[in-house]
Design brief:
Layout (H helix, E strand, L loop, with lengths): L1 H45 L2 E2 L10 E2 L3 H6 L3 H32 L6 H9 L6 H11 L5 H8 L14 H9 L4 H12 L3 H9 L4 H12 L1 H16 L3 H6 L11 H11 L3 H29 L9
Antiparallel strand pairs: 1-2
């Protein structure tokens, strides 16, 4: 009887603790269902329907796979993919290398280093709209960049008004906002043991050897995290192109998300836009999983930190 009573009491305590736990995570669960899972399910349903959003839910018309058939016959779809892939292929390695180099500089032990870190980080917290408006002026024909090039005897283009340079102007602007990535790299660098560097110096390793044999392997988990986040973010690039170029000139900055926005909210083809969104979801998932699978080849992890 005593054992049964003790077991009942323990079960009662565990059940009460479970109720408290569920109560604490309930706001998150409600948000997950209300703002993520239910909208995703509705979007998936819409991708097989025709709907112009302004006429109400009663006008949703099921059309099967016609949206997907139209997408793969749409030249602008392929153009948007091309622009987005080019942006990703150039910007991801460029931003990662730049962030890491700046983080290494900010990891040095000199006076006023905290001030320098703050200066490099501050631009990343400026609202994207404000940043876009500032850089629209900087990248103009008489903007700051061209004024600097003029001092070198180089005539710079109107970056955002020329199809050949508009995309590169947006990529260049992105350096302004690498503060978050830089801080993560800085955190990873500060986690590398000084003893490893001291041992390498005793063995006669130079700076390059220490970097490639110690620094990169020890922060490979940090690199992995930043690369995955960069892949997801780059494929979803939208605000800067929407504010600064609206996809022009001549569709040279027609990013995938911008094209999706045009179809959904300008042409009011919500079913078509939903199909575009699911195609992008699959593409992002594919490249994210590819990066995760490839991590076994280049990410150093202890036995407790395996991916």
């Amino acid at each position: 009887m005593a054992k049964a009573a003790a077991k009942h009491r323990a079960d009662s305590i565990e059940a009460r603790q479970n109720r408290y736990g569920y109560a604490f995570i309930m706001p998150w669960l409600i948000g997950l269902f209300a703002f993520t899972l239910i909208p995703m399910a509705f979007s998936l349903m819409l991708s097989f329907c025709k709907w112009d959003i302004v006429t109400g839910l009663s006008t949703i018309e099921f059309i099967g796979t016609k949206n997907y058939t139209k997408i793969f016959a749409d030249k602008k779809f392929y153009k948007a993919l091309e622009v987005t892939f080019r942006f990703c292929l150039i910007s991801i390695p460029f931003y990662q290398i730049t962030s890491l180099l700046i983080a290494m500089l900010l990891n040095m032990r000199i006076k006023f280093m905290r001030t320098f870190r703050l200066i490099f980080f501050l631009p990343s917290i400026i609202p994207t709209i404000a940043t876009s408006m500032i850089w629209a002026q900087i990248l103009g024909k008489e903007g700051l960049i061209n004024q600097g090039l003029k001092l070198l005897g180089i005539k710079g283009p109107a970056w955002l008004n020329t199809p050949k340079t508009a995309l590169y102007g947006l990529i260049l602007m992105g350096v302004w906002g690498i503060g978050n990535t830089m801080i993560i790299y800085l955190s990873g660098l500060q986690g590398v043991s000084e003893e490893l560097y001291e041992a390498a110096e005793i063995d006669g390793a130079n700076a390059f050897q220490r970097f490639f044999k110690i620094t990169l392997p020890m922060i490979s988990m940090t690199i992995f995290f930043n690369v995955v986040m960069a892949i997801i973010g780059s494929f979803q690039y939208f605000t800067q192109a929407f504010v600064m170029t609206e996809g022009g000139p001549l569709n040279s900055t027609l990013f995938y998300n911008l094209y999706l926005y045009v179809k959904a909210y300008k042409e009011l083809k919500m079913g078509y836009a939903s199909a575009l969104a699911w195609i992008m979801f699959i593409i992002i998932m594919f490249f994210t999983m590819l990066t995760i699978k490839s991590s076994a080849l280049w990410v150093y992890a202890s036995s407790d930190d395996k991916i």
